[in-house]
Amino acid sequence: MNEPGEDRESLIGREEMTDEQMNRMIEELCDSKAEEFRLIGYERVTGADVWECVSDKYHKKGMPPLYEVVNDILSLKVTQFMNFITLNMYRGDMRKG
Q1: In whole angstroms, how large is the CA radius of gyration of the chain?
Q2: Residues ≥6 apart with Cβ < 8 Å to 22
Q3: 97 residues of the chain, pLDDT tens digit each
Q4: CA–CA distance from 21 to each of 3, 18, 63, 64 (Å)?
Q5: Verdict on whether the full-model pTM lies above 0.90
Q6: Dihedral angle at the C-alpha atoms of 88, 90, 91, 96, nearest 10 degrees?
Q7: Dmax (CA) of the chain
Q8: CA-CA distances (angstroms) from residue 57 to 49, 64, 75, 79?
Q9: In Å, how far are 14, 20, 22, 26, 55 from 17, measured between CA atoms?
Q10: 24: which DSSP letter?
Q11: 9: number of Cβ within 10 Å
C-alpha cells in the first residue's frame, strides 16, 4: 500500500541502481548461493562459479532483466550446478584454479 501522499508516479520515479550497485548486488547473491552450497557439503563452490553457471545461457540470448537474473541465481539447484560443472569439465571449458 502506498504511503499517504504517494502516487504511482512517485513510486516509479524512485532512484535507479547504477551498474556498479547492480554488479555488487549480483555478486553478493552469487556469494550467498555459493555459501548455501557449501553448507550442504559442496565446499569448493565460489560466487564466481555460481555466476559462471547462471550467466552461461546469457551469452546466447543476451542479458535479461534484473529480476530474471536474481531469480536465476536464487532458484539455482545444486543438481543444475553440478551438471554444468561436469559438462564443462568434459568439454575442457572450465576456468583453471
Answers
A1: 17
A2: 66
A3: 445 555 544 445 456 889 899 999 999 999 999 999 999 999 999 999 999 999 999 988 899 999 999 999 999 999 999 999 999 888 886 554 4
A4: 26, 5, 16, 17
A5: no
A6: 60
A7: 59
A8: 14, 10, 15, 16
A9: 10, 8, 6, 12, 20
A10: H
A11: 7
Q: Which residues lie below 8 Å from residue 27, measured CB to CB, with a gap of 6+?
A: 47, 51
Sign of CA dihedral 56, 58, 63, 64: negative
Burial 86-97 (b: 16+ CB within 10 A, else e): eeeeeeeeeeee
In whole angstroms, how far apart are CA 19 and each of 16, 36, 37, 76, 78?
10, 26, 27, 23, 28
